Amino acid sequence: MLKNKKTITAIIAGVLVIAAIIFLTVESAGGTLDVVGKKSVQSFDMVLNAIPDQVSKEDGGKGFALTATDGSARFIWSGETDESSRFDVKLQADAAPFIQAGLDIGKLPQDYEINDNVITVGVKLNDGSSTGTEESALSAYEGLVKNDRSLINYHMVMDHFGVKLGGGNMFEWAKDLETSAATKQAQDKDIVFVLSPEPLIAAGVDPEKVEGWLYAPVPVMENGKKVQVNKFLKPFNIK
Questions:
Q1: How far is CA 86 from CA 52, 67, 82, 164, in A?
Q2: Of 50, 131, 159, 187, which one has the fewest beta carbons inside 10 Å?
Q3: b/e per residue 158-190 (b: at least 16 CB within 10 A)
Q4: 45 within 8 A of 38, measured Cβ to Cβ
Q5: Taking a C-beta distance cutoff of 8 angstroms, is the pair 3, 11 a contact?
Q6: Pick from 92, 91, 95, 90: which is nearest to 105 by CA?
Q7: DSSP string, 46-68
Q8: CA distance linking residue 82 with residue 6, whole number of Å
Q9: What is the tens place of the pLDDT at every residue in 32-45?
Q10: Whole-prediction pTM value?
Q11: Low-confidence residues of the chain, pLDDT below 70?
């Protein structure tokens, strides 16, 4: 009898392990059990509702734009590919602070654009199929999650969701606009525009002289360990 109980326990344990593997596999693939993807949609909806005047249809292209309250940066997203645009999802920033801090435009990498005194970084969607969900800012974001789930990230240390824009550039927002689960304190960085400093520094920027952007270490997890990585940050409290 005891032997039978041990056998049954072992079978149950094996089933649970297999179920956990299936869950994680489906989640990481962006399937129906994708917790991060679904929660990011709910959280992004709260951001859109908090600053409706800062959200608009993108002029001359597909998708929508969320503009910083001081007008110095924008996050632009679409749920499907626009063949007329180099990027489907992108971050734009006023180039003036970087130029004043020493930026030589001609030394920027090819994956950076600069036009009309605006720096643009971004990515194309992996799946260019039409989702038919461009009617609202939220439905466009839902299309983004559906078409290219690999771009969506959860930054546990900061309790932020984010969209990866290539080369370490990101747009992040707080999972909860009221309280950070990471610090158990009031959330003070509701949305954050994030630029990777290395290409800009290599193009002549003195990171300590860029006005309006914080040059600061950000805690991230790499290979299971917490490390500090320097970033240019433009955070806003919108609540």
A1: 27, 20, 8, 16
A2: 50
A3: bbbbbbbbbbbbbbbbbbebeebebeeeebebb
A4: no
A5: no
A6: 95
A7: HHHHH-GGGEEEPTTSSSEEEE-
A8: 58
A9: 458 899 999 999 99
A10: 0.82
A11: 1-33, 59, 61, 127-134, 221-224
